[in-house]
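1st attempt posting a full record on here, be nice pls
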Amino acid sequence: MMPISTLRPQIPFDQVTARLITLCLTLILMGSADASAEAPSVISTGAAVLSGRVEPASGTLRLEAYDAASLAYVDDRPVPIDAAGRFKISLEALEPSLWRLVGEKAKAFLVIDGAERIEVLLRPKSLGGVQIKGSSGNGRLEAFGDLLEERNHFYFDDLKRRGEAALAAGDAAAFEAMEEERDHKLTLFYTDLGEALEAMGHSAAVLGGLRYLDIYKQRPLFVAARDRFARYSPDGQVSRALRRMLADAETADVGAPAPAFVLQDRHGQTFRLEDFRGQWLYLDFWASWCLSCRLEMPRLAKIHREFAAAGFAWVGITPYDERDAWEQTLDQSQAPGTHLWDGDHRVAKSYRVGRQLPASFLVDPSGKIMARDLSAKELQERLAAELPKAAREPAYGRESSPAAMAAPPAATNPLPSMAPGMSSASDTFRAPSASRLKR
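the predicted structure (as tokens):
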């Protein structure tokens, strides 16, 4: 993927117009009247007041604070509720911060940017879901989610349609011709998101928005936010959390030891990282709903056949998926290598891999990460330089073909995208008041 800083080539006038209209509307929703002005300060002194009602009116209610050290929500205090389920508390809100109200049947994720009066209706989806009023930060975060979904459709729907057609036809050349277009649109896509994040100013919603992105693929957005908050509130929750995120990213970056894992394949056989010690290991995080992942499989199968005898192992790891869809994809693709199920996403999280798939790591025989997110061509060139030619086999065989990948599984994500790992934006982002803001 091209870096965010890459200069944009010219694009058609209708695309420019649509992008400007969307961004202007989003800036209004986010409370910024002038995108070119200094990012607004939303902090204010005093107390934020949280009030509302829990439905059904029973059980307990607790307030949790987002902890910048652990990047997780931690218990802060119990919240009294009366017989009708009503509650009202105040808390000092001298810094933009993230909070969470946790009942027995629902959770409300809160962005508190100052002394606001916030009303929360906490109820499960079966009763209508969570509603939040009065939080400017939650409004900013919801607007960011709407923008992400709209941009995802705008840039990638047509590309996805043509990619599916190329996949069904087994036309690898057609897909390769689309890769440059995909990379160009990815640059525009993430530039739009970066502008929207900057328009949030010093709201803690920035932290909420960034947590949906891949820190390796969009590192410049994290660095820009860190630097902006460092000038504004260097010891605040958001500043400390951004520093921790960027520091944690180094644990699975190039030059670091590959994090250990223990996973099983579809037959229940257990595999560990150390089982592959002494080989060049390609860890490929993929999912059945990811079109780019499925299109890459035939190329990886060719590389596997060429280099396996020389000491190369292809290990696929699948998080964020339905097991039946994963197994159906394996059946259709007849993909070689070792493929492991990461149902609770723990291994993906240890490698700092989110839903922006595919994500990959090339690990050397000693267990050190040597490269991230190589294309199939880059992987082939790297292995050709590292592994002895005499031990290789011709890169042709029947293991996997583009045509074998044609039919997507019945249980795929409803919006697989050419944007790596963009799962259904409606599933991920459109819950009321950004109620899916989670770790």
